[in-house]
Amino acid sequence: VLGVFGWFFDSVVFLLNEDTYPAVMAQLNYSIRIFKTGFELTFNGFNEKLPLLIDIVINCLNNYASLMTEEIFIMIKSKAINRLKNNQYDLDYVSSDLKNSLIQDPDWYIDKRLKYLETLEYKQILRFYEQLNNLYCRALIQGNINQTQAIDVSKKVVSLLNYKPLAKEHFPTVLIKRLNLGDFRVKMANYNPKKQPNTPNT
Fold it and tell me: What is the Cα 23 distance to its own chain's centre?
């Protein structure tokens, strides 16, 4: 699921590029961050028209199925695969990714994410989108805005997303594996992303 999640929001950002350009020029910004427990939408700027940017992003999420064509899917998938392949040669990225794969559960290390992405199909991403209808929403609003305005913005986002509440027993969890006291090191003799499966590192 995490692999689809990341790709899904990469595609949302691509779809938003043209519509959000005027807002970016007006120094209104948004970002999307992916976590194992969900996603985070962040909006910031000094303009009273910031709620319009929120509308644009949420409307894209609501209309994703009609905006995401198979042609766009193939193009974004190709770029995502190339980015992951480049990360395979980034030693800092690989070592950090390896460390996380050892202590976090669940975790998808880079090779596993790449393998999954290469087999991802257009129909799968649309099916994933259709299932994205149960959410748990939290909001943090700060800055030059009063309490009433903040509540109104939060209610508007919830109304536009039009999701069903996520049952508490289905809240995602991330486990961190406990290591015994002492000094531990992760050693990797060599990493060759092109090597064949079941062949030793040299």
Answer: 22
pTM passes above 0.85? no
DSSP 8-state symbol, 194: T
Answer yes or no: are the C-beta atoms of 161 and 62 closer than 8 Å.
yes
> Tokens 């766009």 belong to which residue?
72
3-state class of 111 per DSSP? helix
Looking at residue 62, its amino acid is N
3-state DSSP call for residue 31?
strand
Phi/psi of residue 150, nearest 5 degrees: -65, -45
Six token digits for residue 33: 């961050």
Contact 30, 42 (CB under 8 A): yes
| Bridge partner residues of 143 (DSSP) | none
CA proximity to 5, closest of 124, 97, 139, 167 = 124
Cβ atoms 44, 29 nearer than 8 A: yes
The secondary structure element, H or E, covering residue 41 is strand 38-44
Question: In the chain, which residue ranges form alpha helices assigned H by DSSP?
Answer: 2-25, 50-62, 64-67, 70-87, 91-103, 110-119, 122-130, 147-161
User: Which residue type, as a one-letter code, is found at position 34?
Assistant: I
Closest C-alpha among 92, 71, 55, 73 to residue 12 = 73
Per residue in 146-187, pLDDT (tens digit) is 888 888 888 888 888 888 777 777 776 766 677 777 776 666
